[in-house]
Amino acid sequence: MSIMEYNGSAVVAMSGKNCVGISSDRRFGVQAQTLSTDSQKIFQMNDKILIGLTGLNTDVLSFSDQLRMRTKMYKLQHDRDISPQAFGKLVSTLLYERRFGPYFVEPVVAGLTNENQPFLTGTDLIGAPVFTDDFVVAGTATEQLFGTCESLYKPEMEPEELFEVMSQCLLSAVDRDCVTGWGGTIHIITPDKTISRTLRGRMD
Amino acid sequence: MDHLLGIVGDGFVMLAADEKVAHSVVTMKDNQDKITVLDETKILAGGGQFGDVCMFTELVQRNLQLYNLRNGYPMGVKAAAGYTRTEIAKLLRKNPHMVNMLLGGVDKHGPALFWIDYLGNMQKLDFGAHGYGGYFALSCMDRYYRPGMNIDDAKSLMKRCIEGINQRFLIGGASFKVKVVDAQGIREVDLSDVQVAPEAAGNAMEQ
To answer: What CA dihedral angle connects B33, B38, B43 and B44, to 10 degrees?
Structure first.
């Protein structure tokens, strides 16, 4: 029993044309027992940044609270919103501060830069980042998600097509992992607004 | 070994907790009240390591009272749950407390039930359970729970879950303390004269 598989979660973020999407499953459980089917794993930091947190739920809640506090402090101190690149670095730094007693989370950051370009990063539980331009996955269903994303992804998708592709990637992947699923949540950040939808999937 | 159950109904939250305190293979007490009254609008059912449960629930209760005294109004239910969770999470890497909780309350946003475990995992739920009792009760609640149930239906559902646990759990004969919190306050309820409707005949998946 691994601590990262205690609650079970799946998050995927994908880039499109002047937009970025992030989606997660909705199950909350303790090992084999499912307790909730509307658990939140994606948290909004500001208008242009969303972070998806997989791993142990207590650290997901603690870490997202910490990040929200730091993002608001940044806004008060600098009188502007934090950029996605700086936020990604903040996530890495905060995780590495706990190098020998880490938060058991694996975050995925999806943001839109000032030039409305998608920005994606994911880190491991001690903050090692990876910057990609196509998609980032995290959680207990990463192998499955890599498979679906690699086959269905195409560059420069419009928001509606990005929504369709991400939904299919997530729902197919979580169907093959017993501790994830029970529906999905998806957010697409575009320059004018963030579109949020709930996905209906297999409820088992 | 504690069974904790909770249901959200129409303007109220009902919590049930078993009454046994055991030490190894001996039953020390069989009428312990595991549902603490935090203030006029919130109750907390706690199970797990009994010493930790007592210390931690009292800590939460006293700090909520302090907040009320300092600010002149009680904390909301979500805030109180968040506070409780943060305290347990802060202790996790220093002095872990083995306390699983169901926090139920009613405030201006309506009734709310929060499930919090010893690690600090937390979810807002319509119905929930801790312990082995959950293995029997949760499926029962999945089948019979409807949002906005009235008090009689909730009593009937709770009784059905408790009877299920007592029928099938290895250590039987658990008695339960049941409390309800609503806008009028907190009261204990007695389920002994509640009739559980027999299983509806026909298609079990009808909704």
So the answer is: -70
* A140, A109 Cβ separation under 8 angstroms: no
Element at A31 (helix H, strand E):
none
Q: Do B115 and A39 touch (CB under 8 A)?
A: no
Nearest CB neighbour to B123, from listed A28, A33, A56: A28
Tokens of A199: 């996905």
Coil, strand, or helix at residue A189? strand
Torsional sign, CA A63, B127, B158, B75: positive
Q: What is the sign, positive or negative, of the torsion defined by CA atoms of A14, A58, B123, A69?
A: negative
**Three-state SS across B117-181?**
CCCCCEEEECEEEECCHHHHHHHHHHHHCCCCCCHHHHHHHHHHHHHHHHHHCCCCCCCEEEEEE
| Chain B residues with CB within 8 Å of chain A CB | 85-86, 88-89, 92-93, 115, 117, 119-123, 125, 128, 134-135, 138
Residues of chain A below pLDDT 70: none
Mean pLDDT of chain B: 93
> What are B39's strand-pairing partners?
B42
SS3 B78: helix
B64-91 average pLDDT score: 97
Query: Hey, what are A114's tokens?
Result: 């000032």
Taking Cα atoms as reference points, which of A186, A201, A202 lies closest to residue A50? Answer: A186
Interface mutation vs chain B, best among A28, A33, A61, most B CBs within 10 Å: A61
> Left if phi > 0, otherwise alpha if psi is -120 to 50, otherwise beta: which for B53?
alpha
Angle at B198 between CA B195 and CA B203, to 5 degrees: 150
The per-residue pLDDT for range A83-129, each reduced to its tens digit, is 999 999 999 999 999 999 999 999 999 999 999 999 999 999 999 99
Tell me what ipTM this predicted complex has. 0.92
